Q: What sequence folds into this?
């Protein structure tokens, strides 16, 4: 049995059940690179402040480097005896350098140590997620460019509404992911604050140089209140929320891919290499991959809600409840990153079935709004035009025709303003081209949006 880092005050052995229930080593071992990185910076600072000697610091830093390499090579078992990663690293250090290793924890508590480790972890996770978001945006923008002029039905209430460009639809997701990336980058500012030097809650009696540690670890600043620094996990919650938002956006896109790949829609096919089959129905080809991303969204939301709930009634400062932050964070980060990785690949495996998209635009009176706008152009007020077109649709439904199949005489019954030129306005394929103000679905507007996105994402500009 290992000596506990807090053993002095205790006269009885810890119950075995308590040892295992209390331990976080089973999951916080993921923090080891950060724990060691933080310890090295702390150690150098202790020497700089004359709290330990330079020789002592050199020995400790060297041993910590060895421990890191051994951990990298899987040479430790993450046994519950260690309680947590901080205990494991300290024990390994003492094994290597003797009682000198016991000096490392001077002026430090596991409370500020774990706050530091988690901040370092989140900082890396954010960088990785931001890269993956950009990768997905590059794929989306590429798809939009390849399908720039493809017309498809746009929907509201999942009812055909107006013709839009497929490229515009895809670029909508680029916008969502762009904001998601911005949220992570804004959150990074708040994560990038160094908590070490807060000690347990009150700050240390030693004259620690916190700025030096922050500089060494690449932090932008130091925390301003020791009690806050060891007791809040808002930066983890922000990560979980930002991650939930990305998952929500991906889940909506996945939902569309699932619907679009159904026989009823038939707008896309997903390549065989990204689908799976059925053990009983030989004909089946199922969109499991977007379904799984949609499904895993619930898991990330769950971690957000669970940690919010864990935190909601904790008195200041540190409470052991906060140990529950880690599994939520690690699983959310892994899930988010694997989903983003798979999503970028999946999007490349989608083929759009242009003829099906075009066919779907022809049915369902998608030009009705343009017809009303046409009447406005002839001097009719919009409300009246809306009413007239509504009645025309009713007639068309009755006669089992589309609007463009009505004769000019049939249409003139509704408004004498209607002329031959109306048929141009009834062609759904032409509808997007009337909408080229910024943000609209016209080919010129979408092309400009693509160009701007490509520039921002460092992709080469399209030939103009
Ligand atoms: N494993 C603990 C956690 O994750 C580390 C901090 C322990 N601090 C303490 N005072 N028991 O929160």
A:
């Amino acid at each position: 049995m290992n000596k506990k880092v807090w053993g002095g005050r205790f006269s009885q052995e810890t119950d075995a059940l308590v040892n295992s229930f209390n331990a976080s080593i089973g999951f916080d071992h993921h923090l080891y690179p950060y724990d060691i990185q933080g310890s090295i910076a702390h150690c150098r600072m202790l020497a700089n402040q004359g709290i330990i000697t330079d020789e002592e610091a050199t020995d400790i830093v060297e041993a910590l480097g060895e421990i890191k390499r051994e951990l990298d090579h899987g040479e430790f078992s993450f046994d519950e005896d260690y309680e947590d990663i901080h205990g494991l690293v300290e024990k390994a250090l003492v094994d290597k350098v003797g009682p000198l290793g016991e000096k490392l924890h001077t002026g430090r508590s596991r409370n500020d140590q774990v706050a530091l480790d988690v901040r370092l972890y989140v900082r890396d996770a954010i960088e990785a997620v931001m890269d993956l978001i950009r990768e997905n945006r590059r794929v989306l923008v590429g798809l939009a460019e390849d399908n720039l002029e493809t017309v498809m039905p746009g929907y509201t209430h999942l009812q055909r509404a107006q013709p839009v460009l497929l490229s515009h639809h895809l670029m909508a997701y680029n916008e969502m992911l762009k904001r998601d990336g911005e949220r992570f980058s804004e959150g990074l500012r708040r994560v990038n604050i160094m908590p070490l030097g807060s000690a347990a809650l009150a700050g240390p009696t030693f004259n620690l140089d916190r700025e030096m540690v922050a500089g060494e670890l690449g932090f932008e600043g130091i925390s301003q209140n020791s009690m806050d620094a060891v007791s809040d996990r808002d930066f983890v919650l922000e990560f979980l929320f930002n991650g939930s938002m990305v998952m929500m956006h991906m889940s909506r896109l996945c939902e569309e891919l699932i619907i679009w790949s159904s026989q009823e829609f038939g707008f896309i096919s997903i390549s065989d290499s990204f689908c799976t089959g059925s053990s009983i129905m030989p004909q089946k080809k199922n969109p499991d991959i977007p379904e799984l991303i949609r499904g895993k969204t619930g898991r990330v939301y769950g971690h957000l809600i669970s940690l919010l709930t864990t935190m909601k009634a904790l008195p200041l400062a540190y409470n052991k409840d906060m140990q529950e932050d880690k599994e939520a964070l690690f699983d959310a980060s892994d899930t988010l990153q694997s989903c983003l990785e798979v999503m970028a690949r999946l999007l490349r495996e989608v083929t759009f079935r242009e003829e099906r998209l075009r066919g779907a635009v022809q049915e369902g009176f998608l030009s009705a709004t343009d017809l009303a706008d046409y009447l406005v152009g002839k001097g009719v007020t919009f409300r009246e035009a809306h009413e007239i077109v509504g009645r025309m649709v009713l007639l068309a439904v009755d006669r089992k025709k589309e609007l463009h199949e009505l004769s000019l005489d049939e249409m003139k019954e509704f408004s004498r303003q209607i002329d031959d030129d109306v048929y141009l306005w009834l062609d759904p394929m032409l509808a997007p081209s009337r909408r080229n103000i910024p943000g609209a679905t016209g080919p010129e507007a979408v092309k400009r949006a693509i160009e701007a996105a490509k520039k921002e994402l460092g992709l080469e500009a399209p030939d103009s």
